[in-house]
Prior knowledge:
By secondary structure, this protein is an alpha/beta fold. It folds into two domains: 2-220 and 297-319, Spore Coat Polysaccharide Biosynthesis Protein SpsA, Chain A; 223-293. It is built from ten helices and eight strands. The two termini are 26 Å apart. The model is unreliable at 308-320 (pLDDT under 50).
Amino acid sequence: MRLTLVVPCYNEIDVIARFHSAVSHELAATGESYEIIYVDDGSTDGTLDVLVEIATGDPSVRYLSFSRNFGKESAMLAGLRHAAGDAVILMDADLQHPPELIRRMLELRVRGFDQVIARRTRAGDPATRTMSARAYYWLINKWSDVELVDGVGDFRLISRRAVEALLELQEYNRFSKGLFAWIGFESIVFEYENVLREDGRSRWSFRKLFEYGLDGLLSFNNKPLRAAIYIGLMLSLIAVAYAIWVVVVAATQGVQMPGYATLIAAIAGLGGLQLVMLGVIGEYIGRIYFETKQRPHYLIKETNLTQTHVVPGSAAGRSL
Ligand code: UDP
Ligand code: MG
């Protein structure tokens, strides 16, 4: 079996050399043949120079460098497209994914699983983060059509046929967690102890996380649109009932001073609701807009890959 390790890197100059030696050590110990694909996602700190240096000293290293920062999703896609292995392992460069687990993944792969998924515990995470994550996963699993598991990220081994399946999904807005779940296949999840980021804080700000969460909710279903219909219907019914009540009161007791507060509250409340719903519709239209442009997910600036690679779904092979 041949193994490909795909590693997206964005400004990882401090850890990348250490990562490479740790991971090479592990891979060599498995006895399998392997290649490592580093995808430099437009780093600005000289990560690419280090990668070039690593590649000159190690024939199993391939690297790709994007023309700018396109995001981890695009970096992973590029790695998957160029992976030649019978199995691919996706791994972060920041040593938060313990290289020792590679061996464990290979063992489980031999037992026939198409996706071997490492699930981190939430030890060491701030309580607020843990709680919001729990609430989020409850919500998303209630709403969306794919099942997502808390603590499961991109760290996983994927068989060749599962990789091909992922590459068939050509959407521009890639929400990997959902895509991995969507393709199905036999999967197994095993747990590992959470590793804190060595050089300080995660690059995920609260806002980025929130937007990522929103992405997840919107990417895999159209239930928010349906919710708009239900809420609208419900409010219309309430409005009709209220109107009848007002007429009845006026007929039996004469017209009284109108309820100023009710009026303002209704206007503000309904106005807000309409804007939210409009926003939801806009979100979907925005997605359609980006999909129809058919822009590439990334642009490559530099690479040491030489072979022509057929991008599934496109008629012509794309050469680098
Ligand atoms: N990464 C990337 N592009 C980005 C952001 C991150 O390729 O725009 C890479 C990063 O180098 C790392 C992995 O994705 O290898 C995970 O990033 P990070 O550690 O910041 O995220 P977290 O571990 O907090 O999920
Ligand atoms: Mg990390």
